[in-house]
Prior knowledge:
Distance between the termini: 21 Å
Helix content: 10-25%
Number of helices: 2
Number of domains: 2
Strand order of the largest sheet: 10-9-13
Largest sheet: 3 strands, antiparallel
Order of helices and strands: HEEEEEEEEEEEEEEEEEEEEEEH
Radius of gyration: 27 Å
Amino acid sequence: MLRSLWSSASGMIAQQTHLDVVSHNLANVNTTGYKKRRADFQDLLYQIDRQPGSPVEPNSTVPTGVQVGLGTRVVGTPSFMTEGYLQITENPLDWAVAGKQGFFQVTLQDGTIGYTRAGSWQVDGDGQIVNEDGLLLEPAMIIPEDAVEVMLSNDGVLSVKLAGETEAQEVGQLELARFINPAGLLAQGNNIFVQTDASGDPILAQPGQDGMSEVRQGIVEMSNVQVVEEMVDMIIAQRAYEANSKGVQTADDLLRIANGLKR
Length: 263
């Protein structure tokens, strides 16, 4: 069987995965806090018919040899943690990390901590700040029932004004997390990441301190997907898929010719 059949088939499979990644990016172009992903490729094993550097005479060697590759595969889909564009909402519970260093923390249903860049918060029936899935912000903060104004400073101090009072009172201090390798975080869906051995342990700090980005109130961070770039990648994936399919067809034609030699 011709090696080109399997090499071309591996290329088609890889480009299909490439298109899956691009489609996922485009589907999340308006998802709050979404971080785009990219498909990374790697060549497969080589069949070495003639070893480079093999001696042919006492004073000479083979300069290049014969090495035939066996195709490609997708080895990673890293996420890009660049900052998405900031959209003003004027909602006091919409917060954004103004920079790429920092994740909000939420308490997951199993009690572990999840990390997110989506800063659209709500208040539950007990006054606790939660995300749109009801997961508690960590550290927990409670908005009093009679609060008439909610204020978040750039360094993460949450204050409220109560009915009948002129002075604001502090009700909480926001704490962000950052990672040595944020691309190593494991995506859980619902805008949530969890730490892995690849990401390392979280580094916790208040906004604006120890290298952490500041936060902004009344703003949400949107997706960092660039539609034009994704459309170009989609065209590249489509054309590469077509080229690999031509390789399969050509290999099939060669096999047909070989099978037709004896008649």
